[in-house]
Every structure is written in C-alpha cells, then in structure tokens.
C-alpha cells in the first residue's frame, strides 16, 4: 500500500495540471517528487527500525503518509501538491522498513520466505499502483482517489499499531552515530559492498529495460497508445509470484545460488528481447521471465544483507537500498538517450552488460569465508 502511493497520480497528470492551473512540465516534476522523498526515507527513516519500537514507528509513519495524501488531494497549486507528495514519498519508505522487520523477527530458516512475502507486496505496489490509481481517478476523480488511498493508509496505520512488535531495540547505536557510520559500512563490510553494487547494476538494467521499452513502443514504427503500452506492465506480475518461491529457495540452498540463477535467467531474456520489439508474444514472455529472475535475485540478495547483522539489520538494509535505488535511477535516466539515439537493441545490449557485470562482481568479490553459497548455514557464519 505504501509503495503504491508513489505511482498513483502518474496516469492523471494532464487532468491534475488543468485542475491546478499549472503546466504539464511542472506537474510532472511534482509527481516525480515521491521518488526523491522515498530515497531520503531509505537513508534517514529505515535506520530507525533498529532504534524505535516498530509498532510506534510504522504506525506514525503511515499516519503521516495518509495526511500527506489528504493534503495533496486538497492542494490548490502545484507547489502545495508537490510538497505533499514529497512528504508522502518520504513516508512510503515503510516498505523497506517492513523488509528489515521481516528479516529481523523471522527465524533464520524461514527468513527468505518472510522477506519474499514482503517483497511481493512491494512489487505489487510498484506494478499495480499506476493501474489502480488511474482506474479510480477515471471513475471518481483524482482528488477523491487520493482521499480513498489516504484512508487505506490510515487503516494500515491502525493495523500496524495492533500487530507489530512493541519492544524497543536495546544496545543499538544512537541515531546520529548510526547515520554517520552508515557510509563506512560499504568499506568495512565486503559482503554489503558486493551485494549493494551488484544489486545496483541489475536494478540499472531493470529500469533501463522497462523505461526504454515504454519509449520504444511509443516511437515509430509501432506508435502504440499509452493504454496498450501500460498493458505490457502486466507481464511483470509473474515476478510477484516468484518472490516468495525465491525466498524459500534461498532458505534451502543459500542466497548466492538463487542470485546467480536469477541473473542468468534475466540475462537470457534480455538477449531474447533485443530483436523482439515488434513480436509481442515473445516480448511479453521474456518480460515476465526477466522480472521473475531479477525479483528472485533481489529477495535472495537482500536476505544476505539482512544476515550480516541479524540483531541490527536496518543500517545495512538502508545502505543497500540507497545504493540499489541509485542504480535504478541511473537506468531510468539513461533509457531515453540510449533509445532515442541508438534504438531499442542498444538498450537491451547495455542491460546485458550491466547484468553480466553484476554476476561477475558477485562471483569474483564474494568473501571466501561465506563458503560456496550452497548452504544457508555458511551465510549465517559469514554474518
């Protein structure tokens, strides 16, 4: 639910711009602010999971998310609209906090399955947020849609207040000390640096493929409509199902094997997509398997990060997610120039190199003390 709020207004930008009396460019910029806020949330709010009771932290954050959406719904100008969305994006990092909690409070032998369940929810928010938001906005208007979503977030806040653990973490570093120490973790923890940089590389490939595909489908010779292009995103639903299975496999065989399998599948599908732009059946199948492979790799990789320090995993997960997110942002930024100047095949080939680099880095820089990666116990020992 929290993750979806960063995407729900995107299908209605033309109507929102008209209602606010703003240009489409400024409204589009405002609609992109939740993503910026989310990145700040990853760095500043996710570490709080190690310091504050989850029941208090998550419920308050979801309540503020609800209030932010309500303020966006009543905004009379684009500046107020953008400020409210920036705050909503900051609080939408609840999804990453829940991933940390899943790893922190689950038994080691089922940690991957628990993380896969939470990741499935986050993935559903990313994939379905635009579709649900657009459908509601078409039926009742974008302001009423935001009010309904705000109400749903408030229900989630009440539920988290009842369900989540209420005990505070003991022995954790002070908040400011944690923030200062986080950048050093990339240098002092080889496992974290390998996981973060390799994850950023495949998220770069993921974002490059999806953004590049949207542009390529809209350009000649296909010239597809936005509605038809949006239907391609439904192929990614297969990846949601894969996350829980990937978590179970990581629990049984270890994270490393699942990461390599996921990257190999994604790389093969990317190669298949390069010449398949005009052949929809092959493209949709390849997209579904592409998402399946990378979602599986993400669950297994994040499981490994959370195993580095099971007692205080939030700071490691925060650093990992910030680096990971930076890779995705670069992939989105490079998609337009690559497709515009060199075409869709060049975007696919670039993604192939990024995936291959991620696999090579994971293979060459893997700490030897982690063992072969086939045994979950070896990972526990490396943490």
UniProtKB/TrEMBL annotation:
Gene3D superfamilies to which the protein is assigned, alphabetical: MFS general substrate transporter like domains
Q: Which UniProt keywords apply?
A: Membrane, Transmembrane, Transmembrane helix
Record-linked InterPro entries: MFS, MFS_dom, MFS_trans_sf
Is Membrane there in the keyword field? yes
Q: Does the keyword Transmembrane helix apply?
A: yes
| Limits of the Major facilitator superfamily (MFS) profile domain | 1-369
Listed transmembrane segments: 20-45, 114-132, 144-164, 192-217, 229-246, 253-273, 279-297, 318-336, 342-364
Q: What name does this protein carry?
A: MFS transporter
């Amino acid at each position: 639910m929290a993750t979806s709020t960063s995407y729900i207004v995107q299908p209605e930008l033309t109507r929102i711009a008209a209602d606010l009396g703003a240009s489409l460019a400024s409204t589009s910029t405002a609609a992109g602010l939740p993503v910026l806020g989310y990145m700040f949330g990853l760095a500043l709010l996710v570490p709080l999971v190690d310091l504050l009771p989850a029941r208090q932290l998550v419920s308050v954050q979801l309540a503020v998310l609800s209030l932010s959406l309500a303020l966006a719904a009543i905004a009379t100008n684009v500046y107020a609209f953008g400020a409210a969305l920036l705050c909503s994006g900051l609080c939408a990092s609840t999804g990453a906090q829940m991933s940390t909690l899943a790893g922190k409070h689950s038994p080691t032998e089922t940690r991957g399955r628990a993380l896969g369940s939470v990741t499935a929810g986050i993935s559903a928010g990313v994939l379905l947020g635009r579709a649900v938001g657009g459908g509601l906005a078409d039926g009742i208007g974008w302001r009423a849609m935001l009010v309904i979503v705000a109400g749903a977030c408030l229900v989630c806040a009440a539920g988290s207040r009842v369900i989540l653990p209420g005990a505070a973490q003991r022995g954790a570093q002070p908040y400011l000390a944690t923030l200062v120490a986080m950048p050093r973790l990339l240098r002092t923890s080889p496992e974290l640096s390998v996981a973060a940089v390799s994850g950023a590389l495949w998220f770069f490939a993921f974002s490059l493929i999806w953004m590049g595909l949207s542009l390529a489908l809209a350009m000649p010779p296909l010239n597809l409509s936005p509605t038809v292009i949006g239907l391609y995103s439904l192929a990614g639903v297969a990846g949601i199902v894969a996350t829980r299975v990937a978590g179970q496999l990581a629990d049984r065989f270890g994270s490393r094997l699942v990461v390599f399998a996921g990257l190999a599948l994604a790389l093969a599908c990317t190669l298949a997509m390069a010449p398949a732009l005009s052949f929809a059946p092959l493209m949709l199948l390849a997209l579904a398997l592409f998402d399946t492979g990378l979602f599986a790799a993400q669950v297994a990789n994040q499981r490994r990060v959370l195993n580095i320090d099971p007692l205080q995993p939030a700071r490691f997960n925060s650093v990992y997610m910030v680096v990971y997110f930076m890779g995705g942002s670069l992939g989105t930024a490079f998609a337009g120039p690559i497709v515009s100047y060199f075409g869709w095949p060049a975007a696919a080939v670039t993604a192939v190199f990024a995936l291959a680099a991620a696999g090579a880095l994971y293979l060459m820089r893997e700490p030897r003390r982690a063992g072969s990666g086939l045994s979950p116990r070896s990972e526990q020992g490396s943490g």
